[in-house]
Amino acid sequence: MMPIPYKYSLRRYIVSYSLRFSQAIEIIIFIAMKSEREFYDYLSIPKIAEGLNIPVPSVKKLIGMLKVANLILSKPGVSGGLALTKTINEINLYDVLSAVEGEGILFPIYENFDIENFPDKNIVIPVIKNSRNIFQGIQEQMVASLRATTLLDLFHDKIE
Length: 160
Hints:
Helix content is 48%, strand content 5%. By secondary structure, it is mostly helical.
């Protein structure tokens, strides 16, 4: 088997998501902990932004996404604010990821190859098909793992 030159290696192409995912997790956990330990019914966006050191506009945008996903509800008025619609044991990582990043394909694959330009298309066709199948399998495993991990699980040491 011929080695793939480094410049074409997959090590250079790491899938990356914005900070929204981790910030949204922190917002949900912050609301849960403040509500439980300090007996707040609702928290304001400025209080969340200040507590997490996340700019208010970013918190507003994330809250909007989490509300659309029905993870957070808001109550208007002086005594209003934000609260969770579920416990952190009922919210999994996939819920949060899909709320802030969407439910698209995690590993998009370029589909517009001109196979005729390859020296041996009999080798290339299975490689392209296998890469699609492998990436699909990886995505399915990743989604299953995210769905199996609740936000409460983040409080437990799972490193083995």
